[in-house]
Design goal:
mainly alpha, 4 helices
Length: 130
């Protein structure tokens, strides 16, 4: 006799556990965010225009945070999620912006720079880092 797991549980009088099912919109938005992130990473890696990259990076940080908020909004999130997610996004964004620098000489993107010390010198070309 073939029976699905769910109907077996129902037959035993147990309610099936609620399955976590994000909406289609949330999945699509998450995919858009992932593609956006990949393009941003490629751009930051390939471009040597430090001035433009700094602007793009700042704008992208806000766009990325908005996408994450949108995904949470579209998902079955618990009430009050906004109060938890918002500060986390602000902190992550702040750390990202503080630890990502751009070399003014060769234009490379320098990730994971020390957060509280002022910019030093580019490990690739020795130029000044902004
Ligand atoms: Zn450099």
């Amino acid at each position: 006799m073939r029976q699905s797991f769910q109907s077996l549980l129902l037959a035993q009088g147990q309610a099936p556990k609620p399955v976590f099912e994000p909406s289609r919109e949330a999945i699509v938005l998450w995919a858009v965010g992932a593609v956006f992130g990949l393009f941003l990473a490629a751009y930051l890696y390939l471009s040597r225009n430090a001035v433009l990259k700094r602007k793009v990076f700042l704008v992208s940080s806000f766009v990325g945070a908005t996408i994450v908020l949108g995904v949470f909004y579209l998902m079955p999130s618990p009430p009050g999620w906004f109060l938890f997610v918002m500060p986390v996004l602000v902190i992550i964004g702040y750390i990202n912006i503080r630890t990502t620098r751009f070399c003014q000489s060769c234009g490379r993107t320098l990730f994971r720079q020390p957060m509280f010390t002022r910019p030093t010198f580019c490990p690739y070309c020795g130029g000044e880092v902004s």
